[in-house]
Amino acid sequence: MPEPILSVQDLHTHFLTDNKEVPAVDGVSIELHKGEVVGIVGESGCGKSVTSLSIMQLVPNPPGKIVKGEIKFKGKNLTYATEKQMRKIRGNEISMIFQEPMTSLDPLFTIGNQLIEAIRIHQKVSKKDAKNYSIELLNLVGIPRASEVVDEFPHQLSGGMRQRVMIAMAMSCDPEVLIADEPTTALDVTIQAQILDLMRNLNKEKQTSILLITHDLGVVAEMCDRVVVMYSGKVVEEGSVREILKDPKHPYTKGLIRSLPNIRTTEQKLYSIPGTVMRPSLDQVGCRFAPRCEHSFDSCWEENPKLLKQESGRQVRCFLYDEEKSERGVTSNDKSYT
């Protein structure tokens, strides 16, 4: 298989609090190949966004810091790149659509000013050409009155319109990698479909590799080639979309899929995984999902499970798939899970 365009290996990003050091991202490894769409899914607080900010070297320091790991883009190590080096890469080769468009756009400058600046930083074009291209991009992402909106301020636009401006900005320099952090969260269903179509076309026509962070498994099913499931700062399962959605292995992934509404049933109450996400800590021992897992046994509380690679190539972090541990600790009912 060819070298990945983006490779994250054993990434550890910690945050310093008043009391202790919290590992928000704890040993995450992800690979993204040319023209591939990889989805990262999981509950809020599982480390999805911090992983993407770490790749872009945008983790606020203090209190956050990459303490270990390697981030490679086209073979170049970005882990300890200087701010000057990252400025050449951000926006030009790796772009990001942020989750909160209102806090990502400067309220003191017009939409046009912000788009023009982004274009002219990376492309040698005149201000007039950059403005014309800005209007073209706004039309492309489905913004009506683009020639007027270009002279308006962020507060004059709705949340969905601001999100589309952020997508236009991310697409302005034809990046090789696009990191999309919940790109459709603020949009209604019709606009969601338009934005996903835009991203799909970008992927198909220009072979743009996309790292899509979302909690919406419907979007994952429609857009992604592979899925990485994260829980409490760790990758708990990875595989193709078909494998993950049709035959999930990890109890957490099973719970996520089980919680989806099913139009074929008449049940009024939706399933939810019991308990809450455990706050990660450096001295924690055992599986982080064990307190919420109905299949946990002694090993789950005493040892940290490794990410096990299966014959098909998919990976799962669970003792249910460790032959030695499962034979010793899983009941007959639980073995049907494997």
Automatic annotation (TrEMBL):
A GO molecular-function descriptor: ATP binding
Xref: InterPro entries: AAA+_ATPase, ABC_Ni/Peptide_Import, ABC_transporter-like_ATP-bd, ABC_transporter-like_CS, Oligopep_ABC_C, P-loop_NTPase
Keyword Isomerase assigned: no
Main localisation: membrane
Location in the cell: Cell membrane
Protein name in UniProt: ABC transporter ATP-binding protein
Keyword annotations: ATP-binding, Cell membrane, Membrane, Nucleotide-binding, Transport
Membrane topology: Peripheral membrane protein
Annotated family: Belongs to the ABC transporter superfamily.
Gene3D superfamilies: P-loop containing nucleotide triphosphate hydrolases (3.40.50.300)
Organism, as annotated: Allobacillus halotolerans
Domain ABC transporter positions: 6-257
Pfam families: ABC_tran, oligo_HPY
